[in-house]
């Protein structure tokens, strides 16, 4: 295959389609395309996930094999020999093509694997969503719409509205007669019709002419019937009680040999008497329906249609003249007139009903997109429809070309299940005649497995697309090697389908052969794979589910006895219940089989089809939620207490009432407050633990305990997820009540599998598609098609040489050709359904047949019906040898065998290994704030790894807010400067001060500092500098009274403050004003490497404890491998390198609050000792790598913590300088570094 143009792959069941597609993907990526240029779609999300994982595995396998060849340094001869020995066709092809540039192939695959996350593998629905979002401007769909899960609700709403509009628009008599005839139903009865039509949104729906409902003829005919008298009836005595009475057809006369006597002597007079007054009203009286039907039976058969004949063949004495006289009699003419009027009226009312259905379908189809757009939502089907519409016209052509350029290659799996809208979208982009040759489209499907017609899949779409590919010189490929089943089963099933290869709808069965995949033989009494296809004919009056249960018991007994096993190379593996599946076309038959299996003790594994919102558990959760939101309503609290979740019975509740419900009311009220303030999940988990709900749920032994636990977890998860979408507790509560009241069967609400899900698998044939089982039982394999209850008729019509799908509302006058096409479509899909069923097994199939009902004495023996698998089974074998060798008729079992027990296996006691002290962790990072858990919650970072590398410069500052009385305020002897006391507190204000010190020159003049202050207030908007300035002006204005305050006043105060800081001694007599720009560095960021082992926090705490500077408890940082931070100031005083950290912490209004003792207390409270030590370790490592002949004792200085509000130019005020011992820094570096430290 060359990856240009159009390619069509037909892959029969079990032919290794996923393996082939993943191999093709390797070739695609090796040649012209990268993952972000390729699209792969399939039918379900599960299939998409499997396909992507298989593509990744195939890429890795290929890349590793090429690397292996490169490492072996093979010459061309050795490589050619290796190629001839290869069995894998992909590896063989790649080595042949790239044998001279294997290094390129390896590098290319490594690149592809690194970018594989950019490959889109999903459903066509999710791909359409991706396109509309990625190309919103080009498509014209700029407004983003969310996918709704309320589509059925909207459809129900629209059906209700449209039906009400239709009723209001009709004359009253039409509505009345529709109701009397049972033709006008509730909105729910029309939803199935509308939903089915929406699945074929692009198909034309044929309407019919508007019918008029007239009852005058029926009323007149009934009036005439009521005017008949007894004398007129007796004139017909020769026909019902005379010489002509035995000449009527037995269908008319009946089997009781009484002829028409009861009709004319009892039924007709009684009816006339009943309807004498208001005959039309009595006609619609259900109590008289039996009398009317008995009279109408003279002319109408059981189906309500006119009889072909009433008399037997004309012969003496009942000659043609005698028969004509009967029909010409006034009584008979009046009965015939009523029958004709009845049929005409029923025809009219059927047309009215058909018009109603057409109106509903048409209006909902038009209004649903508008309703979804109003709500800002859409459905996957509507999204595909919108995308297909956006691709029409000149603008659509440009849009399609954009998409094709961005994604030149697409692979569409399960193409037989695509609907018309999806194919229209694909055709406009990748089968466009203008540019299809520049890209590549690969369509993969199996027409024999197109069984999802009820979802919109249409073989007409498949056939038209295939014809389109052929017209554009596309290539057709077929996969015909079945790797799923053993050779014997492949041969016999292939022989069966070759008997009648035409499945219908242009689907022809192509022969297949067994693939090369090895299968361990199924040994049955020392025979390998004997008779893999077995026909079991059950007596006509027996239940096939009983026979299936008996047969499975026999198979399991054989497995236990060692007579039935799989002969693996590693040993014998007995057949188990998990290897068996029962498939059926209906859930009802599966229910019967499940009952019989469980009755005899065989475990069953059947996926749930129930919503988690059904059953007592969902209602009990609703009761508890009600009590939480209404804690003072005792009735609601009592209902919650009586749930199984809380575990109280009625007697216990009566006893509680005597003591009072105050404690429960208080508890529910607390949970409500927690829900409002902290969110649903926190409150709900607290409720579960408070009332011991998990324990109550499993307090009594029951087979359903695990189901209840899983469902409660499922409900908790759904409520938690919805709490993020619904604002407020009551919105979430009402959403939950709505689900409980109207549970659906959406994927996310279906009950989940249990952990012990094992046993015989039961599923419908539709559910089994794509799955594989070792032994399969097919229920009712000769079952004829069910009666067609569909309200729609699917036909075709040709337009411009292409067949198009048309849909009509079913009614009696519908075109016979259309009905024939509809019936052929149903039968063709049923044939494909049985093909899917028969190809699920890998070793053996049991097809359950039903013996025809015995004919009555003297009657011809009934023949088996040509339905189900009998469509092929009753045909002459295409190969009698294969049919005789690998299939057989197996006699049904007459009794149930006793169950054999497995031998007791000696239990081996298993003990868990000791939990390792050292473990591997990913390389993440932490910081001082991440370790210091005692800081306010708003300042804490993730305890394991900071998500953000940047942190506010003042994020670690804590401001003390002492409560001061008036007397204490008066006693402030040395108040700090006004600007220091009134400058705002908090992270933003502190970060502004940090930024100010970062930009000023420490040796600048007073005027230069004034200008820099002014510049920072006007420019540092990220720190709300404008808000800070306005606030300071307002405070100063209040302090001065009537004086007008200007910005310059604030700038002057700030300048004086900065000068105080610069002129305050830090250690000895050293001041910041002594530093030139060459001797200091502001904002010094660092990444400090930590040990490749768990960080021992306790060792750090003990180190500080020994040094006389205890620190608060710290967070664990088990996964941290880097410690990040930023030092405010690193400076050189001429002898040593020191660090300084600016703190805008507010410790009080008195200057004495900033003396050394108070500062050291704040340092301990805030764990600044730890911060200073970490910064010194970082500086120590930096100097050690940059400074020649570095000596820690000579070159590393100390840490000065500058409490800016307390610095006023004098020593001992606002400055805490700490220079730890060199041994302290080295020991901390050892704990943090790469040296192994033993506990």
TrEMBL record:
<keyword id="KW-0227">DNA damage</keyword>
<protein>
    <recommendedName>
        <fullName>RecBCD enzyme subunit RecB</fullName>
        <ecNumber>3.1.11.5</ecNumber>
        <ecNumber>5.6.2.4</ecNumber>
    </recommendedName>
</protein>
<keyword id="KW-0269">Exonuclease</keyword>
<dbReference type="InterPro" id="IPR000212">
    <property type="entry name" value="DNA_helicase_UvrD/REP"/>
</dbReference>
<keyword id="KW-0378">Hydrolase</keyword>
<feature type="binding site">
    <location>
        <position position="1128"/>
    </location>
    <ligand>
        <name>Mg(2+)</name>
    </ligand>
</feature>
<dbReference type="GO" id="GO:0043138">
    <property type="term" value="F:3'-5' DNA helicase activity"/>
</dbReference>
<dbReference type="InterPro" id="IPR014017">
    <property type="entry name" value="DNA_helicase_UvrD-like_C"/>
</dbReference>
<keyword id="KW-0479">Metal-binding</keyword>
<feature type="domain" description="UvrD-like helicase ATP-binding">
    <location>
        <begin position="1"/>
        <end position="486"/>
    </location>
</feature>
<dbReference type="GO" id="GO:0005524">
    <property type="term" value="F:ATP binding"/>
</dbReference>
<dbReference type="GO" id="GO:0008854">
    <property type="term" value="F:exodeoxyribonuclease V activity"/>
</dbReference>
<dbReference type="InterPro" id="IPR011604">
    <property type="entry name" value="PDDEXK-like_dom_sf"/>
</dbReference>
<dbReference type="GO" id="GO:0003677">
    <property type="term" value="F:DNA binding"/>
</dbReference>
<dbReference type="Pfam" id="PF13361">
    <property type="entry name" value="UvrD_C"/>
</dbReference>
<dbReference type="InterPro" id="IPR027417">
    <property type="entry name" value="P-loop_NTPase"/>
</dbReference>
<keyword id="KW-0547">Nucleotide-binding</keyword>
<dbReference type="GO" id="GO:0005829">
    <property type="term" value="C:cytosol"/>
</dbReference>
<comment type="function">
    <text>A helicase/nuclease that prepares dsDNA breaks (DSB) for recombinational DNA repair. Binds to DSBs and unwinds DNA via a highly rapid and processive ATP-dependent bidirectional helicase activity. Unwinds dsDNA until it encounters a Chi (crossover hotspot instigator) sequence from the 3' direction. Cuts ssDNA a few nucleotides 3' to the Chi site. The properties and activities of the enzyme are changed at Chi. The Chi-altered holoenzyme produces a long 3'-ssDNA overhang and facilitates RecA-binding to the ssDNA for homologous DNA recombination and repair.</text>
</comment>
<comment type="similarity">
    <text>Belongs to the helicase family. UvrD subfamily.</text>
</comment>
<dbReference type="Pfam" id="PF12705">
    <property type="entry name" value="PDDEXK_1"/>
</dbReference>
<keyword id="KW-0540">Nuclease</keyword>
<dbReference type="InterPro" id="IPR011335">
    <property type="entry name" value="Restrct_endonuc-II-like"/>
</dbReference>
<dbReference type="GO" id="GO:0000287">
    <property type="term" value="F:magnesium ion binding"/>
</dbReference>
<comment type="subunit">
    <text>Heterotrimer of RecB, RecC and RecD. All subunits contribute to DNA-binding. Interacts with RecA.</text>
</comment>
<dbReference type="InterPro" id="IPR004586">
    <property type="entry name" value="RecB"/>
</dbReference>
<feature type="binding site">
    <location>
        <position position="994"/>
    </location>
    <ligand>
        <name>Mg(2+)</name>
    </ligand>
</feature>
<feature type="active site" description="For nuclease activity">
    <location>
        <position position="1141"/>
    </location>
</feature>
<dbReference type="GO" id="GO:0009338">
    <property type="term" value="C:exodeoxyribonuclease V complex"/>
</dbReference>
<feature type="region of interest" description="Nuclease activity, interacts with RecD and RecA">
    <location>
        <begin position="922"/>
        <end position="1239"/>
    </location>
</feature>
<keyword id="KW-0067">ATP-binding</keyword>
<keyword id="KW-0413">Isomerase</keyword>
<dbReference type="InterPro" id="IPR014016">
    <property type="entry name" value="UvrD-like_ATP-bd"/>
</dbReference>
<feature type="region of interest" description="DNA-binding and helicase activity, interacts with RecC">
    <location>
        <begin position="1"/>
        <end position="894"/>
    </location>
</feature>
<dbReference type="Pfam" id="PF00580">
    <property type="entry name" value="UvrD-helicase"/>
</dbReference>
<dbReference type="GO" id="GO:0000724">
    <property type="term" value="P:double-strand break repair via homologous recombination"/>
</dbReference>
<feature type="binding site">
    <location>
        <begin position="11"/>
        <end position="18"/>
    </location>
    <ligand>
        <name>ATP</name>
    </ligand>
</feature>
<feature type="domain" description="UvrD-like helicase C-terminal">
    <location>
        <begin position="487"/>
        <end position="770"/>
    </location>
</feature>
<keyword id="KW-0460">Magnesium</keyword>
<keyword id="KW-0347">Helicase</keyword>
<keyword id="KW-0234">DNA repair</keyword>
<dbReference type="InterPro" id="IPR038726">
    <property type="entry name" value="PDDEXK_AddAB-type"/>
</dbReference>
